[in-house]
């Protein structure tokens, strides 16, 4: 079950989550921490995840990052 909506999500509102990690990163500003809830996140859907300077990401227990067959990094620091 998918939980979230990139069109209606709001920063700092756990009841209004983003659907994708890249959308949360786009909305984040320096000093923000993105909390990724349990679930499987497919690289084919999420794409490369590039963190902004000053933005942190925290993965809750139960998060699975499923890579593509090319086995490149899913997350990179920019």
Describe this structure in words.
- The protein is of the alpha/beta class.
- The chain is 14% helix and 28% strand.
- It is built from 2 helices and 6 strands.
- The strands form 3 sheets. It has a two-stranded parallel ribbon with strand order 1-4.
- It is globular, with a radius of gyration of 12 Å.
- The mean pLDDT is 80.
Task: Write the SSE topology.
Layout: H1 21-27, E1 33-36, E2 39-42, H2 43-46, E3 49-51, E4 56-59, E5 63-66, E6 75-77
Tags for this model:
two-stranded parallel sheet, 6 strands, alpha/beta, two-stranded parallel ribbon
Summary of the model, kept short:
This protein has 78 residues and is of the alpha/beta class. Helices cover 14% and strands 28% of the residues.
Which consecutive residue ranges, at least 5 long each, have pLDDT under 50?
none
Compute the separation of the termini in Å. 31 Å
DSSP helix count? 2
Percent strand: 25-35%
Q: Major sheet, described briefly?
A: 2 strands, parallel
Strand arrangement, major sheet: 1-4
Mean pLDDT: 80
State the shape: globular
Percent helix among the residues? 10-25%
Order of helices and strands: HEEHEEEE
Using the CA coordinates, give the radius of gyration: 12 Å
Per DSSP E runs of 2 or more residues, the count of β-strands stands at 6
